[in-house]
């Protein structure tokens, strides 16, 4: 009647493990000392601030080490392919602040820097501009309109 499956990575969407996982990771933000965590389902964003490159690097790396220890204690591993960081600020502020990319680490892994990221379906860039998000929506809408044009001869107008 029931078949046992081993889940090597992640939690199957819609399974009864989802709510249990949320309870399991609920105390993750408690290990942060100078950062804050925003959590939704299995996505976690950690943010901090600083006036200098060194200050940013120090603050986030201390908390990422705390997260690494928390993950080890709870027998969890992060998805390293989805782990990234972004420095947010005005063009002038970022160019003055970031001469070289800070070395941000989680455990033994160096985290890659990105200039834009998709979070909960919204594309955010390092200057908090909407260009990438708008372009993404325009592209999706154009594809949808194109599909409707192609099927209009096969489908009643009331359906379109």
Describe the overall structure.
This protein has 160 residues and is an alpha+beta fold. It folds into two domains: 19-115, no CATH class; 129-159, no CATH class. It contains four helices and eight strands, in the order H-E-E-H-E-H-E-E-E-E-E-H. The strands form four sheets. Strands 1-2 form a two-stranded antiparallel ribbon. Strand 7 (116-119) and strand 8 (122-125) form a beta hairpin. The longest helix is centred in the middle third of the chain and has 21 residues, at 53-73. The N and C termini lie far apart (43 Å). The model has no long low-confidence stretch (mean pLDDT 89).
**Order of strands across the biggest sheet?**
1-2
Mean pLDDT over the full residue set: 89
Low-confidence stretches: none
Radius of gyration: 21 Å
β-sheet strand percentage: 15-25%
Instruction: Give the biggest beta sheet.
Output: 2 strands, antiparallel
How far apart the termini lie comes to 43 Å
State the order of secondary-structure elements, H for helix, E for strand.
HEEHEHEEEEEH
Structural class: alpha+beta
Number of strands: 8
**Integer count of domains:** 2
Overall helicity: 25-40%
- So what's the overall shape? flat
Number of helices: 4
């Amino acid at each position: 009647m029931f078949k046992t499956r081993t889940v090597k990575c992640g939690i199957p969407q819609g399974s009864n493990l989802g709510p249990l996982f949320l309870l399991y990771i609920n105390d993750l933000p408690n290990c942060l000392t100078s950062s804050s965590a925003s959590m939704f389902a299995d996505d976690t964003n950690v943010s901090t601030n600083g006036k200098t490159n060194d200050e940013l690097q120090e603050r986030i790396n201390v908390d990422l080490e705390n997260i690494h220890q928390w993950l080890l204690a709870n027998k969890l591993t992060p998805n390293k392919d989805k782990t990234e960081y972004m420095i947010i600020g005005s063009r002038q502020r970022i160019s003055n602040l970031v001469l070289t990319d800070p070395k941000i680490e989680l455990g033994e892994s160096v985290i890659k820097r990105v200039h834009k990221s998709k979070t909960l379906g919204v594309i955010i860039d390092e200057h908090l501009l909407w260009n990438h998000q708008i372009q993404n929506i325009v592209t999706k809408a154009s594809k949808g309109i194109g599909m409707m044009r192609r099927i209009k001869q096969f489908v009643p107008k009331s359906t379109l």
